[in-house]
Amino acid sequence: MQKDVRSNAKKIEEYIDLAPENQKVLLLKIRKIILENDFQLLEDWKLGPNCSYQGMVCGFAYFKKHIKINFFNGAFLQDKHQLFNYGFDNEHNRGINVPNGEGIHEKHFAALLKEACLYNQKNNTQNQSIIRPKTAITIEIPSVIRIFLKAYPSELSNLESISYTHKKEYIKWILEAKKEENQQRRLAKMLEMLQAKKHL
């Protein structure tokens, strides 16, 4: 076991060392936060760096224009700081895409790791199939949308009342806009559609 842990750590170190310089600092920070978590997560290597605590917790990888952090049970987490911005259509996973040149809030990321570990601890997901709870499925409206609709309470209420699927489509569409001006255009279009009581 100890040999596997050392081997995985070595693979992750080599992986980060090969990353572009402009991404290496954030990758090292992500790994540091993971290793310093209260739950003593174990580093693993399954098609890339990831960590586990009574089951898989999260993994990370770098791409040409961003770094991706994937939480394997993210769909079941509250994510009260709304770090997730990708993967809302996945049954289990949720992702955090961090564009090059941007960072991640360390305390909020650490809190999300803690929540993921507590989820695994409570549900004992290791070596078990994960079954979605038979309760009403909800999705939190990100702050960028709430702030935009603050002056339009009727439209915000409309967004909150529509089905999970339609709400998820709006959120995904808004958050996937890579440039701020594109996101603002999509927010304005969303407002028009909510006023007309239409969906994407």
Structure commentary:
The model has no long low-confidence stretch (mean pLDDT 88). The chain is built from 7 helices and 5 strands; from the N terminus they run ααβββββααααα. The chain is 46% helix and 14% strand. The protein is globular. It starts with a helix and ends in a 5-residue tail after the last helix. The chain folds into 2 domains: 1-131, Alpha-Beta Complex (Aspartate Aminotransferase, domain 1); 136-200, no CATH class. With 200 residues, it is of the alpha+beta class. The longest helix is centred in the middle third of the chain and has 18 residues, at 106-123. The chain has a 5-stranded antiparallel sheet with strand order 1-2-3-4-5.
